[in-house]
Each structure stands twice: as C-alpha cells, then as structure tokens.
Amino acid sequence: MKILNAAHNAANEAQSTIVQTLAETVADRIREQVVSGRLTPGSHLSELALSEEMQVSRNTLREVFRLLTKEGLLRHEANRGVFVATPSMATIMDIYRVRRMIECPALSQAHPSHPSAKKMRAAVDAARTCRSTQDWLGVGSADIAFHAAVVELADSPRLSAFFFEVSLELRLVFGLLRDPEFLHAPFIDQNLKILTEFEEGQAAKAADSMETYLNQAERFILGAYGRLAPRSS
User: Fold this and answer.
1) Tell me: the pLDDT tens digits for 186-199?
2) Which residues contact 106 (CB under 8 A, 6 or more apart)?
3) 8-22 burial, b for 16+ CB within 10 Å, e for fewer?
4) What is the extent of the structural domain holding 63?
5) Are both 216 and 115 inside the same structural domain?
6) Number of domains in the chain
7) Is pLDDT above 70 for 64?
8) Domain end: 84, 110, 143, which one?
9) Do 123 and 205 belong together in one domain?
C-alpha cells in the first residue's frame, strides 16, 4: 500500500510539474506580446480565444492569469474578466524612483570595460537603426534593452531579475501613449550620450546624465499621461 501511495504521489507531482512548466511557457508568450506592443494596457483577454490560440486548457490558462496578475501585468475584475493592467500615475512615479536607485549607482560604480558595455552599445545601435526605418516599437524595445544592460553593470542577478519585472510594467507605461515616436524619439540620443561618457571612463558623469534622463523621462510620461486621463475616464 505504501508503494502504491508513493507512486500515486510521484505521479501527481510529475503532472503538477508539467502543468507548471506549461503555464510558465504560456506566461512567457503573453509577456512577449506585451513587450512587443501587441497587447496594450486595458486590453481584455478572452479565456476562450487565448486557450484556442495557445492550445492549452482553460485550467492552465487560469494558472497563467494567476501568475501574471501576481506580477502586476494583468488585473482581474469580478464579472468582467481579465485585462492587461493599466499603470496609475503613482505606479509610474514608483517605477522611475526604483530606476534611479538601481541604474545610477550601477553606472557610477562600473568600469567601462565591463562586458555589459557592449550590450549597451548594441542597444543604442539597434535603436538608431529602428529610428531610420520608423520602427518606433523597435526603438522602445532597444531602449529597454539598453537600460537592462546598465543594470547588469551591477553584477547582481537579483537586481537584473527585478529590473526585468520593472521593465514589463515600463512597457505597459509605454503602451499608454499611442504615439511611440513622440515617446521614444527624444531619448535615443540621450542614451548615446550616457554610453559615450561611460565608454570614455567618465562613470560619475554618465550616472549624473542618467539621473537627468530619468527625471526628464518621468516628467515627460506623467505629462502625457495626464493629458490622456480625461479622455480615458
């Protein structure tokens, strides 16, 4: 009897692992749709349509929704369903507060020969290429990649993992503004300026430039968000 119970428990654990792995895979696919701009804040997620599109059961999809709601990427409304989260002004301010606390010290304390400097350069080059083809969503993705590389200068996997979650919320913030060129164009050359200062060994100056950048970006986005708010109410 003990052997049968042990086998039963092992089978249940194996099944749970399979479901969890599938849920995480589907969650990654939904995150990618948010990052790419295909899912925007306020979008309704149809359980039926998504289960067919993703070819998963509704039970698995509900686990996906639970994971992404816990992350703050989705929100559940009673009797209405599941929606892509819409960041508030308080959320935007908190995101930029956290970014200043992470990115500025990461720059100021790093050496220009750090391997992530190459990732920063690649992201800047990608943003400029996307600008030349008017691919503004691509510019947004390159911008997030640049700042993720800045965080990697701190050599902390925990900080990088945390910033990944912050960047998902940041993409939601970007999605609030319907004109990606208006949003991203002013900051391409500022990323280049920060990178150039860092590559030239002026880490403290690059950190100061980053703080100025983040302050400006926060004001810019809050102003745009404020202008949108009356129309969305």
Assistant:
1) 899 999 999 999 99
2) 150, 151, 152, 153, 154, 159
3) eeeeeeeeeeeeeeb
4) 2-84
5) yes
6) 2
7) yes
8) 84
9) yes
Q: In whole angstroms, what is the distance from residue 173 CA to residue 97 CA?
A: 14
Residues 169 and 204 grouped into a single domain: yes
- Show the tokens assigned to 190: 């500022």
DSSP codes of every residue in 70-138: HHTSEEEETTTEEEE----HHHHHHHHHHHHHHHHHHHHT--TTSTHHHHHHHHHHHHHHHHHTT-HHH
Output the average pLDDT for the chain. 85
Distances in Å between the Cα of 2 and the Cα atoms of 14, 33, 54, 114 are 18, 47, 39, 56
Query: How do beta strands 44-45 and 74-77 pair?
Result: unpaired
DSSP at 145: H
The answer on 17 and 126 residing in a single domain is no
Place of tokens 């750090």: 114
| Encoded tokens for 140 | 């947004």
- Containing 76, the helix (H) or strand (E) segment is strand 74-77
Is this model's pTM higher than 0.90 or not?
Answer: no
Residue 231: name the closest of 170, 171, 169, 176 by CA.
Answer: 176
How many residues are present in the chain?
A: 233
Give pLDDT tens digits for 112-145: 999 999 999 999 999 999 999 999 888 988 999 9
